[in-house]
Automatic annotation (TrEMBL):
Source organism per UniProt: Muraenolepis orangiensis
One GO MF term attached to the UniProt entry: [heparan sulfate]-glucosamine 3-sulfotransferase activity
Keywords: Disulfide bond, Glycoprotein, Golgi apparatus, Membrane, Signal-anchor, Transferase, Transmembrane, Transmembrane helix
Name of the protein this chain belongs to: Sulfotransferase
Disulfide bonds: 303-315
Ranges of compositional bias, category Low complexity: 84-97
Enzyme Commission number, as recorded: 2.8.2.-
Active site: 114 (for sulfotransferase activity)
Residues covered by the Sulfotransferase domain: 106-340
Amino acid sequence: MLLGAYPRRRYGVRAAPPPLRRPWPYVLSVLVTYVCYCALFSADATVVVIVRRAPPGERRLQKKSVSCVLPFDEKMEEEERDPAAAGSRSSSSSSSAKFGNKELPSALIVGVKKGGTRAVLEFIRIHPDVRAVGTETHFFDRNHERGLDWYRSLMPRTLEGQISMEKTPSYFVTAEAPRRIAAMSRHTRLIVVVRDPVTRAISDYTQTLTKSPHLPSFQELAFRNQGLGSVDASWNAIRIGLYALHLERWLSHFPLQQIHFVSGERLVSDPAGELGRLQDFLGLKRIVTDKHFYFNRTKGFPCLKKPESGASPRCLGKTKGRTHVAIDRWAIQRLRDFYRPHNVRFYQMVGQDFRWE
Ligand SMILES: Nc1ncnc2c1ncn2[C@@H]1O[C@H](COP(=O)(O)OS(=O)(=O)O)[C@@H](OP(=O)(O)O)[C@H]1O
């Protein structure tokens, strides 16, 4: 008998349903449906299925963990620079998502380092039509010789209409990356998260300092002649901020309309606005909106609200939004003067003023 098709009493009054003797098959089927939903549509959830097997008189709880990829934790940030871990993570996601195919990414977050690339990836991947690799694959810089099949194997499975993405911020400054990406597909949509190059350089230095505490001072590295001379644009932390210079290379392989620029500053002050524009660029329905964000005062950054699944609210880990090392005012002013003409050139190239002053 079908559930709910219980007999009617005389006078057409519906009788109360008989108590289910064995409710567990139904409970299980609901849970299995939920797990499948998670595997298909959410790369972000870990579902704990609690199955009660109930031989008479015995109550036993069985815990099964179905991982659909954990994105926002510290572990993931450690893995950011570990392509081997990238493989293991995405395969764990694909083993739970048995549906769809692994496709080469149709959109890439190519930069810039310390611009806010992790926030963009984590925010856009809550869109049901976006599936993302949580880790930095470094395919178009360090791992290119592994071939496109290897790269494809890292991708999550996607269904018709879904897009797959990855982010590796070093692509933006890698000379070969534009040509290699265009060779994969010249239709690839490119996303560049840009941030005031002076703040970006200090953020970059702050990160390096946490790994190498005996590093020379920022001033010593940023200026020649032991911190007294001209700006040293050969230092990576400075060079990355020469956005116009790097963009030129991309523009010889991709039209400007295929490159979307996210403002790292607005990403913090108005994440929903930036995500709205990004969804438009990707041809997605605007599903990620201000409903998804709240400003976490302790963190000092926007975080994702508690999802309906009941998981906790999610902020990026502690390596994102660090307190920067203090830099002398004169050094900052000299860097501002140095970057000004490069910034103006960049604004002209992209047709947007990011107001870095
Ligand atoms: N919502 C939210 N939460 C936390 N942090 C946020 C957020 N939005 C943007 N940012 C800024 O992102 C900066 C780190 O940039 P990336 O993720 O591109 O860094 S990395 O290149 O992947 O290491 C990070 O830089 P620092 O503040 O210097 O740590 C943040 O300023």
